[in-house]
Every structure is written in C-alpha cells, then in structure tokens.
C-alpha cells in the first residue's frame, strides 16, 4: 500500500479530495432525504457502505418512500448498476492483487473508473483508483450519517450547484481521451445522443447502457469482429 | 422502521440483494478478463466502451432529470465546465466553475 501513496502526486490527490468532498456533501442530502422518508439513520449509511453507487441508492430509497415494492426498488437499482459490468471489463488491472482484489472490486464506481482511465500508466491509474475509492468509502456513508442526523440542514444541494459537479467531474476526466482519439469521440457522441433520445421512454439506467450501441461506429470494433 | 408499509426485515433483505447484485456486476468484468483471452482490439474496445458509458452519463446527468429536460442552470454550468476543460483549465477550476455557474443562475431565478 505504501507504494500506492508514493505514486500519487499532490495535484492528483487534491483533485481526488475535491471529488470525495463533493460526494460527501451529496451524501448529506441523501441521508437527510432517507430519514425524512421514514428510514432510520443507519439504513442509508449501511446501504451506502454495501452498495457504494449513489444513483441506485437514491432510486432505491425514493421508490420505497413513494410506496413502491422492495422488489421494484431492487430491480431499478440493479438496472442502474449494470454498467459496472462493462466498467470491470475496462479496468481489470487496477483492482489490486490477492485478497485486496475483493475490496478493490467493491470500490468500482463512476468516479474511481474515470480517475483510473484518465491516468497515463497503470501504476498511476491503480493509485488514483484506490485513493478515490477509499475516500468515497469514507465520505459517502459519513455524509449520509451526518445528513441523516442533522436532518434537513442542507436539503437543497441544488442551490449550491452541486448537481452540476458530477457531470463536470466526469467530463473533465474523459475529455483528454476524447480529444486525442477520433474513434472514441465518434462513439461517445453517438452513444450520448442515443441515451438522451431514450431518456423519456426507458427506466433509469437503460439509456446509458443503450449508449454502448455507439461502439458500432468505431473501427476497433469492425476489426475485432472480423 | 416506520417507512411506509414494509417490515424492517423485508427492507434489509432488499438492501442485501441490491448490494450482492451490484457486487456481482462489479465482479463479472474482471472475472471474464482473467478467464478468457481477448484479442488486443477487443481489449481496446472495452476501454472505449467505458468512455462511451461515462460520456453518456455526462449527457444524461447534465441535461435530463427523471424522464424530462433538466432546465437551464445545470446544463449551463456543465457547459461552462466543458469549455474550461477543453481549454485545459485545472480540474479544480473546471469542477468548481460548474457548481458556481449553476448556483449563480439559480440565485437570479433561472432554474
């Protein structure tokens, strides 16, 4: 683990810390919403520790709070989280070795994957992945606990523009990959257009998976299929 | 647990199923990669697929809310971030600019 921290330089650590902090603040509203919906404080905290995928947890809590069935809440959450399968295909080298791999696998989420992909080499990618993953493992449930206890202190994270931070984080980290690669750019644009067109008609999670059809525009696929 | 209509046991089981299923999705990718050998081009395709997923997450979380449009403030904030990132501004500036631009628009009543 020591080499992991040595690989991380100050600017990268600062960027990761900012993202973890933002995740923690969103955790505040997640915890507050869950408790306001009638859940005990520990529920969003344990859910956060065991699932570590914010959008599926918001959805799970929201569906139950609206009177939906637990089965519907689980299925909706799983649908949103299905993208972790292709994520795992893309970043198998950063998950760690031996028993660490079980924890490394659990740390896989949008933020850790995008930080790993944005690094130049695997060692740096692995270090960024772990630092971000462990930070989120702490900040997300801690935010949920504080938000659940403090109640509606920060109910409206929208007022601070926090909802714009998540897409901005992902955008900033994938832009370098898109800039240098026409194939990726085309696939990403086509996939995004497809996802946006599907949003009004499909349940949450599916539009993003549908975006994978954009891969058909890459030359890599044509050659791989051949 | 005073959540509407469900016993604590039911909700705990639901939580565990969601957690186990999510872990299964996370585990499936690395397992497949370690069991099978893929041609280099297929491996490149897998990296591209992660970028495509992340790009479509940017698009949907920036521009939509539920099944409809997200209004003006958030797309504007993310667009500001996009311009800054394209011009190679530091990550910190990019992300904070998104939040500030969105918050300022909301402050003046543009949702």
From TrEMBL, chain A:
Query: So which domain of life are we looking at?
Result: Bacteria
Q: Which PANTHER family match?
A: INNER MEMBRANE PROTEIN YGAZ (PTHR34979:SF1)
Which species is this UniProt entry from? Answer: Streptomyces chattanoogensis
* Record protein name field: Branched-chain amino acid permease
Q: What is the lineage of its organism?
A: Bacteria, Bacillati, Actinomycetota, Actinomycetes, Kitasatosporales
**Record's subcellular location:** Cell membrane
Q: Where are the transmembrane segments?
A: 12-38, 58-80, 127-154, 160-178, 190-217
- UniProt membrane topology term: Multi-pass membrane protein
Q: Which family does it belong to?
A: Belongs to the AzlC family.
What are the annotated GO cellular component locations?
plasma membrane
* UniProt key word Cell membrane: yes
Q: What keywords are annotated for this sequence in UniProt? A: Cell membrane, Membrane, Transmembrane, Transmembrane helix, Transport
Q: Name one Pfam family in it.
A: AzlC
Q: Which GO terms describe its biological process?
A: L-valine transmembrane transport
> Does the record carry Secreted as a key word?
no
Automatic annotation (TrEMBL), chain B:
Q: What is this protein called?
A: Branched-chain amino acid transporter
A Pfam family matched in the record: AzlD
Identify the domain of life: Bacteria
> Mind telling me which InterPro entries this protein's record contains?
Brnchd-chn_aa_trnsp_AzlD
Q: Which organism is it from?
A: Streptomyces chattanoogensis
Q: What does the UniProt keyword field contain? A: Membrane, Transmembrane, Transmembrane helix
Transmembrane stretches, start-end: 6-25, 45-63, 91-109
């Amino acid at each position: 683990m020591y080499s992991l921290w040595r690989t991380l330089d100050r600017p990268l650590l600062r960027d990761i810390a900012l993202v973890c902090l933002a995740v923690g603040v969103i955790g505040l509203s997640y915890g507050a919403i869950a408790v306001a919906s009638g859940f005990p404080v520990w529920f969003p905290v344990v859910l956060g520790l065991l699932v570590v995928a914010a959008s599926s947890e918001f959805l799970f809590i929201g569906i139950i709070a609206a009177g939906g069935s637990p089965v519907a809440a689980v299925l909706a959450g799983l649908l949103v989280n299905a993208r972790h399968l292709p994520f795992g295909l893309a970043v198998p080298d950063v998950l760690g070795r031996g028993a660490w791999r079980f924890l490394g696998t659990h740390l896989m989420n949008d933020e850790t994957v995008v930080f790993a992909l944005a690094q130049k080499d695997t060692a740096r990618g692995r270090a960024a992945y772990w630092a971000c993953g462990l930070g989120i493992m702490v900040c997300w449930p801690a935010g949920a606990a504080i938000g659940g206890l403090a109640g509606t202190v920060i109910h409206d994270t929208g007022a601070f523009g926090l909802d714009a931070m998540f897409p901005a984080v992902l955008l900033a980290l994938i832009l370098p990959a898109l800039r240098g690669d026409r194939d990726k750019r085309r696939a990403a644009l086509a996939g995004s257009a497809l996802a946006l067109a599907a949003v009004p008609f499909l349940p949450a999670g599916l539009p993003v998976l549908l975006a994978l059809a954009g891969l058909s525009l890459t030359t890599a696929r044509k050659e791989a299929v051949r | 647990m005073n959540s509407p209509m469900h016993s604590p046991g039911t909700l705990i089981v639901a939580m565990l199923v969601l957690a186990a299923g999510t872990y299964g999705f996370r585990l499936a990718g690395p397992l497949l990669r370690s069991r099978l050998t893929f041609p280099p081009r297929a491996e490149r395709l897998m990296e591209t697929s992660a970028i495509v997923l992340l790009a479509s997450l940017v698009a949907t979380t920036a521009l939509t809310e539920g099944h409809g449009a997200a209004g003006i403030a958030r797309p504007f904030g993310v667009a500001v971030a996009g311009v800054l990132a394209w011009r190679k501004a530091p990550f910190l500036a990019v992300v904070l600019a998104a939040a500030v631009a969105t918050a300022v628009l909301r402050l003046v009543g543009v949702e």
